[in-house]
Amino acid sequence: MGSFYVNFVARTKNRDEVGNLLAGRDAYISPVLDEVVLFYDREADAQDWRLIEELAREFSDRLATVILATLNHDDDILMYCLFKDGEERDSYNSAPDYFEGTLPPCDPSGGAAQVLCEAFGSKNIEAVETILRAPGALSDDGYVFALDRHRDLMEALGMTSQAFLERNDSRRPHSQRFGSSLSIRLV
After folding, report:
1. What single DSSP character describes residue 89?
2. What gap in Å lies between CA 96 and CA 78, rounded to an integer?
3. Mean pLDDT value of segment 123-148
4. N or C: which end of the chain has fewer CB within 10 A?
5. What's the pTM?
């Protein structure tokens, strides 16, 4: 079994503002890392794509910034949606025919490297494009795990990959995982 997670990246240095939006939700929020705040939301972790898009749109609008929402499904699919000021700017799916069982699988869909790089101030457009277009696990030169694609994407965008480990990853200290008794976990 692979990884299952959803996370959100807000391009902001104002962690408190993000925390205020998450008030009353069961969530994890990171310190400011590389001029972004990462957060996980337990409800979004159910991987309901409409809810994920709705939260990304709302947070982007209310924070007046960029929000990148990313979903990893069983380490086979990496999906994202990018919102700026409440408007969708980009979306991506590494395996759009995954649930249809099509062989060979079709190529990734969506993903505008330039738009994504501009949103996070990266100049690595060619590297991001290569990561987005790389085939999946059934190809000899593709990504075996979506987590690896996600890590490479975040690094190409200039963000610390350590921040993007899934929230229940055993490599994270226990104090940074979801807790059943806390609404927001600030670390």
Report:
1. E
2. 10
3. 89
4. N
5. 0.86
